[in-house]
Amino acid sequence: MFKYTILEDEVKSDFAFEVVADSLPELFKGAGIATMSAMIDPSQITGEREWFIELKASDEKMLLYDFLSELVYLKDADTALFNDFEIEIDSKDEYHLKCKINGSPIDWEKDVLLTDVKAVTMYEFEVEEREKEWYCHVVLDL
């Protein structure tokens, strides 16, 4: 379970959000949905196609950064947007993510696009475990 909040007054020309979740995979899922919500109402995405990604990083912060950056790359490379993420994270020696992504190609005649995310920034980028919840703060470059 996750909850994301768009921080409308935090940055003027970018898009900021925070996510609180009961697990690390749910945090990543919430951050993925929040990233998509910068560009489109996620309920518009039909989820007719699947993508699979695997990533490795030294810690959960860099893994989330790489995950969101991969979503932005796939959005550009495949001209698609995403609405669901099935995520597994293993953290034995290093953090390893496996993810099945559902989404659909952008329909330029039907989809109402809000803006375009160019990149994930490191500005105030934060991931941490707080008591029994996971938290992240992300700013996206538009």
Q: In the CATH scheme, what's the topology name?
A: Archease, Possible Chaperone, Chain: A, domain 1
Could you state the CATH homologous superfamily? Archease domain
First CA to last CA: what distance?
Answer: 27 Å
Taking Cα atoms only, what radius of gyration do you get, to the nearest Å? 14 Å
Structural class: alpha+beta
Helix content: 10-25%
Q: What profile does the largest beta sheet have?
A: 5 strands, antiparallel
Strand tally is 8
Low-confidence stretches: none
Shape: globular
Whole-number tally of structural domains: 1
Keywords:
23% helix; single chain; 2 helices; alpha+beta; 142 residues; three-stranded antiparallel sheet; Archease, Possible Chaperone, Chain: A, domain 1; five-stranded antiparallel sheet
Tell me what the structure shows.
- The protein has a single domain (15-141), classed as Archease, Possible Chaperone, Chain: A, domain 1 (3-Layer(bab) Sandwich).
- The chain is 23% helix and 42% strand.
- It has helices at residues 24-37, 60-78; strands at 2-6, 14-21, 49-57, 80-90, 95-105, 119-120, 126-130, 133-141.
- It is globular, with a radius of gyration of 14 Å.
- It starts with a strand and ends with a strand.
- The relative contact order is 0.25.
Q: What's the gist of this structure?
A:
This protein is α+β, with helices and mostly antiparallel strands and 142 residues long. It has helices spanning 24-37, 60-78; strands spanning 2-6, 14-21, 49-57, 80-90, 95-105, 119-120, 126-130, 133-141.
